[in-house]
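Q: What structure does this chain adopt?
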Amino acid sequence: MQRMHVMSEITARGLVAALERIPGQILFGRVTAIVGLLVDGDDHSEPIADAVHGILDGHVVLDRSIAERGRFPPIKC
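A:
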């Protein structure tokens, strides 16, 4: 059974507002936040994951299949 992912406009606005409130200053290129996002079933196309990828500046994606082969951290290149 295929699932449909729907994110309401209220949820989207709340997500953007929450991520933009992360404290920090632009000083010498420092990282001001590390945000973790767990996606359901490794589906990176779901609306929340897609929105977060669009809002944040950088991404590090961990891959379950890489971890199962014993490589840590399982960063997907």
